[in-house]
Specification:
Helix content is about 40%, strand content about 20%. It is α/β, with parallel strands linked by helices and about 260 residues long. It folds into two domains: about 130 residues, no CATH class; about 100 residues, no CATH class. A hairpin with a 5-residue loop joins strand 4 and strand 5. Helix 1 runs antiparallel to helix 6 and helix 3 crosses helix 4.
């Protein structure tokens, strides 16, 4: 792709990408993941009349090839599943007409579970948990509007995602020792660097509400990957020494930074 060196916005984007590359080079065990509306899409449906067809859509490998799909469900629905009750599906048309039908909640949930096992989609968003168990759940003015393209990060209206992951297997040395100190050091580096990336990327958001939300909420996401490879390098049997694995993860995630 060619960029116009005289176009300020083009050069801002180039500099932003350079900052991302520099960030990954600073921490060799860190992987940055960018998701934008241009290359990743999330399709979500709530109590839609066509939800059954939506759940099956990824079974056709040619139907939806560039989108993740998730289904938002509530505690009321899960209670209906537990009690083997019917669930009302509804859809309101542009003319105000309402289409309604009832289905077995358990059968619908089983369809969700089977497709997730078979095709890894759709994802399930337990929306009541998302709204009730977050750092801003007591702020009456804050409300989630949806999630990012892969659905691991709930977002408010105008929210955006800047995500990265630590490759835990890269922190294991040749003797099978997990270097907690280096991991702890890299967390500080990455948090600061990702905030710098967030600031430099602010002008690239097309809408003012996106720029305001990103600047105000400072939303970055830092996760982990490479857990299985880490255990192999540490000679830990995943099944036989599950408790030992949990102690490792607990120390990593609860380390005082």
């Amino acid at each position: 792709m060619q960029y116009d060196k005289n176009n300020v916005r083009d050069m801002m984007f180039v500099n932003w990408c350079k900052r991302l590359i520099k960030l990954e080079k600073m921490c060799h065990h860190f992987h940055l993941s960018l998701q934008s509306g241009c290359d990743a899409t999330l399709k979500r449906m709530n109590r839609k009349y066509t939800i059954e067809e939506f759940i099956d859509i990824k079974n056709d490998l040619n139907a939806v090839t560039k989108a993740n799909i998730s289904v938002r469900i509530t505690d009321d629905f899960m209670n209906a599943v537990i009690n083997n009750e019917d669930w009302e599906l509804s859809f309101e048309t542009e003319n105000g007409d309402k289409l309604v039908k009832k289905v077995s909640a358990k059968a619908l949930f089983n369809k969700l579970a089977y497709n997730n096992w078979n095709m890894a989609e759709p994802g399930i968003l337990f929306w009541d948990n998302i709204e009730n168990y977050n750092l801003l759940s007591e702020d009456k003015e804050f409300k989630y509007a949806g999630v990012n393209p892969c659905a691991e990060e709930p977002l408010p209206n105008g929210g955006s995602c800047l995500l990265g992951s630590f490759n835990l297997s890269a922190y294991v040395d040749e003797y099978g020792y997990l270097d907690y100190d280096l991991f702890k050091k890299d967390v500080h580096t990455v948090v600061k660097a990702m905030n710098d990336v967030l600031d430099e990327g602010l002008p690239l958001h097309p809408l003012q509400i996106q720029r305001d939300t990103a600047e105000k909420l400072r939303q970055i996401g830092i996760g982990i990957m490479g857990v299985a490879d880490m255990l192999i390098k540490m000679n830990i049997n995943f099944l036989e020494e599950e408790l030992k694995m949990m102690r490792i993860k607990k120390r990593l995630l609860k380390e005082k930074f």
